[in-house]
Design a protein that fits this description.
Blueprint (H helix, E strand, L loop, with lengths): L1 E2 L12 H5 L12 H11 L6 E5 L12 E2 L9 E2 L3 E4 L10 E9 L13 E5 L11 E4 L13 E4 L10 E2 L10 E3 L7 H9 L4 E5 L3 E7 L3 E2 L10 E2 L2 H12 L2 E8 L3 H14 L2 E5 L10 H8 E7 L2 E2 L3 E9 L2 E8 L3 H19 L10 E5 L10 E11 L2 E6 L9 H5 L2 E5 L11 E6 L5
Parallel strand pairs: 6-7, 13-16, 13-17, 14-15, 17-21, 19-23, 22-24
Antiparallel strand pairs: 1-2, 2-12, 3-11, 4-10, 5-7, 5-8, 6-9, 18-20, 20-21, 22-26, 23-24, 23-25, 25-26
Helix pairs in contact: 2-7, 4-7, 5-6
Length: 440
């Protein structure tokens, strides 16, 4: 790996107060989902550090600049299949065409010379088209006269069209054109395309560093004894999985108790070592929820509550410590609310910080299999089970929708998205869903 820019450099983030001061309907304690998403997006500046990595190390990395093809792909006209190459001018339209077989061309071993009128060559898939040939007929469409020892072939009338089965030079990609655009998260097919261009090193964005921790005296890590009134911390494991899938460099800071000094120390350490900080719990109004106090001391906050369910307590802002700044996502403590808040707020923001082309999660429409209760004035994300019935997609909520019931997320295969202004849904109505495939 070779470095191009300083990997420790962090982009300056816009002032949150400047973004929100001009909003006439701005209320940090009752933020509609779309407004909150817009504020977050406006705050993002991608990491500006770039490094070069070997082609095999580029999978799932974010491409930092356009890749311009240095060659035509394919480099030469070649055959798309095994058969015979010839000049279409020799074809007869009212009768069979008989051609003399002048030789053979293999992939990597071109036929030497040019075809004369009335000649063809035996050609293999990928072999270069010889001079004078512009068409290939599949071998199964020709006949060879008995006793000719393949010296002649007969092509039936109208068996092939001129120019058929010939790949043109540059047909896939022309030299000087963009093969892949910057911001793309590189997939296996992209690696193959880059290899076909002979490119060995790829410029990619530095991996985004994300620190995360859970808050609460009641939390225990897996492997510890579970005291009365305590619960195992599941949020760090779901956050770990979701961040891992995004390709982030992860800093797991464990569990931080309900102690202001411990929380301050954790925030300062996270800020000085990461680009973004994600916490779970501690953003509600309980006496032991100290995050709000820390944000007043160390940071700038855009909002504290979202008009959504699950996940109403959700903080977004920035933290400054030691001359460094990091974006902050304070997620709720309930396990389902953590995942929902991450997917619909943090995920796209982190992709944007990575410099990736961050398209919103795709929606599809399905028919509600049962009635769904919904109160207008908030966006709801209900866990659902999507299935195909009589050729149509239908969806029903999982039985339990409590924000602490993590099993419902494991049972669901989609999220039913009920818009801010929407009311109750009747059985048979169309609803929008987001598939979990590739997310959870």
């Amino acid at each position: 790996m070779s470095e191009i820019t300083n990997s420790n450099a962090r982009p300056a983030q816009p002032s949150l107060s400047a973004l929100t001061s001009c909003m006439s309907d701005y209320d940090p304690h009752a933020m509609p989902v779309k407004q909150a998403q817009a504020i977050i997006s406006a705050c993002i500046t991608p990491v500006n550090a770039i490094e070069k990595v070997a082609l095999r190390s580029a999978l799932d990395r974010v491409l930092a600049s356009d890749i311009i093809s240095p060659i035509d792909v394919p480099a030469h006209d070649n055959s798309a299949m095994d058969g015979y190459a010839f000049n279409s001018a020799d074809l007869r339209h009212d009768a069979d065409t008989v051609l003399t077989v002048a030789g053979t061309a293999h992939a990597g071993r071109a036929y030497q010379g040019a075809l004369a009128s009335g000649q063809a060559i035996r050609i293999m898939t990928g072999a270069l088209m010889p001079d004078g040939a512009d068409t290939v007929i599949p071998q199964e469409f020709v006949s060879i006269p008995a006793g000719s020892q393949a010296a002649f072939i007969t092509i039936p009338a109208a068996a092939v069209k001129p120019g058929a089965n010939r790949r043109l030079a540059g047909e896939d990609l022309q030299a000087g054109t963009a093969a892949i655009s910057q911001g793309r998260i590189l997939r296996p097919a992209d690696l193959g395309l880059l290899a076909s261009l002979g490119i060995a090193e790829i410029p990619v964005r530095r991996r985004l560093r994300v620190a995360f921790f859970s808050t609460g005296d009641e939390l225990r890590s897996v492997g510890e004894a579970l005291d009365p009134g305590c619960v195992y911390d599941s949020n760090r494991y779901t956050l770990y999985g979701m961040l891992q899938r995004l390709g982030c460099d992860i800093i797991d800071m464990g569990v931080v108790g309900d102690d202001p000094q411990a929380l301050e120390n954790a925030f300062r350490s996270a800020c000085e070592n990461a680009d973004a900080i994600i916490t779970s719990g501690g953003v509600s109004v309980g006496d032991a929820d100290h995050t709000k106090q820390m944000m007043a001391q160390l940071g700038d906050v855009a909002f504290w509550k979202i008009g959504m369910r699950p996940g109403r307590p959700l903080a977004f802002g920035s933290i400054t410590s030691g001359g460094k700044q990091a974006l902050f996502f304070g997620l709720p403590g309930n396990p389902v609310a953590v995942m929902v808040s991450f997917y619909f707020f943090a995920r796209e923001a982190l992709l944007q910080m990575m410099g990736a082309q961050a398209a919103p999660l795709p929606l599809m429409r399905a028919t509600a299999a049962v009635g769904i209760r919904k109160r207008p004035g908030r966006t709801e994300y209900q866990r659902g089970i999507l299935s195909m019935n009589d050729g149509q997609w239908s969806v029903r909520p999982t039985a339990a929708q409590g924000s602490g019931i993590l099993r419902s997320m494991a049972e669901a295969n989609c999220m039913i998205v009920l818009a801010h202004e929407q009311g109750d849904v009747a059985s048979g109505d169309a609803v929008e869903v987001i598939l979990f495939d590739g997310l959870v």
